[in-house]
Amino acid sequence: MNKKIQISRRLLIFLYAYSHQAALLLHRSNNATWKEVRGFYNSRIKPEKVRGYLSALLGRPDTLPVPSLQDTLFFSISKRLVYSVLYTPFNRQYLLEEEVCYYLQLLKELQTFLAAEEVDPYKVGDLGLRFNLYIHRHFQWRLRIKDQIVAMKVDHFFANERLITTPLEQFTTGLNF
Question: Which of 6, 12, 144 has the alpha carbon at shortest distance from 85?
Fold first, then answer.
């Protein structure tokens, strides 16, 4: 199941920004009512839309058995540093099939939380941590630093008014969303 799925650079940046936005939303949801959190996502790209796009890219529905985070490919800090320095000029725009399946599972859990009327704050925090781990283990080393900086400025829940953010929809230009 270590099949490489080639993706465009734009899609990789979008997925990084989307995951960062979701992680920030889940982290900051403790400071607001769940109704406000759900209201934020009502005007944004929904997780089911991203899941459908990735399932089509995968070539089959997302009903595959999902590996645990420990079973997915893990890169240590030193290995990520070496990869980011040595492979910068080379093509790193792919995801492994296992990584896509795990990401689809994270999006499914986010979708379930957003559909619920009330949620357990500990489970929400856990999902936010898993999004952060996924970002740092699987997306970050594949992006150039300037792309990471751009994607980190995505608009998010409870963003400071003085902060200049980029709407998530701007990351979808050139993609068929």
Answer: 144
- Residue 130's alpha-carbon distances to 54, 86, 99, 169, in angstroms, are 19, 27, 13, 24
User: Is there a domain that residue 116 lies in?
Assistant: yes
**Does 99 map to a domain?**
yes
* Separation of CA 32 from chain center: 22
Mean pLDDT of 57-77: 59
The Cα angle at residue 149 between residues 103 and 170, in degrees rounded to 5 = 70
Tally DSSP H helices, then E strands, for the chain.
7, 2
Does the residue 177 lie in any domain? Answer: no
Residue 144 within a domain: yes
Report whether 26 contacts 128 (CB < 8 A): yes
Q: Express each pLDDT in 13-22 by its tens digit.
A: 999 999 998 9
Instruction: Give me the percent of the chain exceeding a pLDDT of 90.
Output: 25
Q: What is the structure's pLDDT at 2?
A: 74
- Say what the pTM is: 0.82
Q: How far is CA 127 from CA 44, 89, 110, 147, in A?
A: 19, 33, 8, 24
Q: Residue 163: give the domain boundaries.
A: 4-172
Residues with Cβ within 8 Å of 72's Cβ and at least 6 positions away in sequence, in order, are: 98, 99, 102, 137, 138
